[in-house]
Design goal:
Mean pLDDT: 93
Oligomer: single chain
Radius of gyration: 19 Å
Organism: Adhaeribacter arboris
Protein name: DUF695 domain-containing protein
Strand content: 15-25%
Strand order of the largest sheet: 8-7-6-9
Order of helices and strands: HHEEHEEEEEHHEEH
């Protein structure tokens, strides 16, 4: 990707930022934003910011190989009133609630449990027990769990700390079973690493 392409994107964004604010979406501007970022093989999301009213995240789609690209794009972002910009999806306050309306899926993950495993090669696996997902097929379960984990941890921590995850019906033992809301703290625990 050329720097000129990124610079032109940010110029366009500044010219259209008012039409992208959460209470003022304009469909044609959103479509243009989607076409541009999708052409870079990246994802995006707009929502409330952590310290400003709005945020734009240009996401590497959970791929460490694309992280450098999103960081490069965000590094060229201008300073804009009411807007903050991220190169990965940030943790969400309502991480445990998921609505996939096009698939008629509504999930509350607040009761989920997990066990964290660390292998000899240093790889980390999260085993997730989600009783309210039993009706779904394996692929759908995995998609839901991945989205919830990314919403809980943020995309960067998910990519950097979680090598594998699996959805289980039961744990092999009672050892290490923890409420899912503590996963971020557990992954940041220096004694675990």
């Amino acid at each position: 990707m050329q720097d000129k392409e990124v610079i032109n994107f940010w110029k366009w964004f500044v010219d259209n930022k008012d039409k992208l604010e959460s209470d003022n979406y304009e469909p044609t501007i959103l479509q243009r934003l989607d076409e541009t970022i999708s052409s870079w093989d990246l994802n995006w999301e707009i929502g409330p910011g952590q310290s400003k009213e709005n945020s734009l995240t240009i996401s590497p789609k959970g791929s460490p190989a694309l992280l450098q690209l999103t960081e490069q794009i965000i590094s060229k972002a201008p300073t804009v009133d009411k807007w903050e910009f991220y190169s990965t999806k940030q943790p969400k306050e309502n991480w445990y609630l998921l609505e996939l309306s096009h698939d008629n899926i509504s999930v509350d993950a607040s009761e989920w449990e997990y066990v964290l495993l660390k292998y000899k090669d240093g790889k980390i696996e999260v085993l997730v027990k989600a009783e309210n997902l039993m009706e779904y097929d394996k692929d759908t379960k995995e998609l839901i769990v991945e989205i919830i984990l990314m919403n809980l941890l943020g995309e960067r921590m998910f990519m950097e700390r979680v090598d594998y995850f699996d959805v289980v019906e039961e744990f092999d033992s009672e050892a290490g079973i923890t409420e899912i809301k503590y996963l971020s703290e557990h992954l940041n625990d220096k004694f675990f690493f």
